[in-house]
TrEMBL record:
<feature type="compositionally biased region" description="Acidic residues">
    <location>
        <begin position="1"/>
        <end position="12"/>
    </location>
</feature>
<protein>
    <recommendedName>
        <fullName>malate dehydrogenase</fullName>
    </recommendedName>
</protein>
<feature type="region of interest" description="Disordered">
    <location>
        <begin position="1"/>
        <end position="18"/>
    </location>
</feature>
<comment type="similarity">
    <text>Belongs to the LDH/MDH superfamily. MDH type 1 family.</text>
</comment>
<comment type="subunit">
    <text>Homodimer.</text>
</comment>
Amino acid sequence: TEVSETESEEDGPDAKRTFSSSAANATKVAVLGAAGGIGQPLSLLLKHNDLISHLSLFDVVNAPGVAADLSHINEPSKVTGYSPDNDGLKHAVTDASIIVIPAGVPRKPGMTRDDLFNTNAGIVRDLATAAAQYAPKAYMAIISNPVNSTVPIVSEIFKKHKIYDPKRIFGVTTLDIVRASRFVSELKGTNPKNEKIVVVGGHSGVTIIPLLSQSGSNFTDDELKALTHRIQFGGDEVVKAKAGTGSATLSMAYAANRFTGSLLRALKGESGIIEPAYVKSHLFESKGIEYFASNVELSREGVGKVHDLGPLSQYENQLLEAALPELKKNIEKGVDFVHK
Ligand code: NAI
């Protein structure tokens, strides 16, 4: 089932040895769920990244086709595609440095991300198990929803396989920041590229906490409420507009490409790269909440420094109070799923 290898740009025999171990590993990126609404445009964007020498695509349908298509693009990386036959998943992840997972079903109108749990939890568990077996050193970027629960699932699977390293597991929340930056710029007439909005908490509804008091702009109370709601439920706008055919895929692919690119640069040794992500976090551990999204400085180890939230307004403290119990429930649901 492996197709579309381009032979011309294989790593030279010394390529792996000339980098430190983590940098050497940072060249094969696997996308699991690569034929999907997110997977395809994400793979297209990743094909354009010079830090990737091998893009490895897996899906239960059509990944060899997507790989064949992308492999005709005249950029250096090699592209391979795998279906589940002939140990395709094993081959897809073996030696991967980063495994990005957008596999699973997306929302339809009226659904919450938690409604996806029953289908996606099992998919993520199985993909994480393969990663644990065949790519135990890979960095994991989890897109599949509900992220609040799928990150604990991956973590518990890795603990079972005794390869757990919390610095290697990320829930991708980049889209929340991408959206927030865009929405604020629409209101303020600024360039969205220059907006650096901090969004913390989790990745669903009320667990998404924008810290607009840190944005450098002033908002009226009404603006603040409307903007906060739009950032928390921005995904619903897309679900509704797509009218039953899916949720955000293109903006998500953009966001996941940004995150993966940042992680690759950090793994190569670049410092000072900060991205938001949902990770194992000390911030609310004392309240029994093991995972939390905040700004994270990326490093050669993956998660470098987990940033504190900084000063919160009274309104943001209220948002935090509303988020924590929901987040706790979502995390427990993921953990219980693996141990049931
Ligand atoms: P989609 O249905 O278009 O694509 C999902 C792909 O996963 C399909 O190609 C399907 O064949 C594949 N798949 C299903 N089971 C699989 C398995 N066991 N192994 C490998 N591949 C498998 O869905 P879409 O729109 O790409 O969304 C994917 C996921 O991403 C959903 O769970 C969605 O909720 C989530 N999402 C997350 C966001 C975030 O900000 N973290 C934003 C938007 C969506």
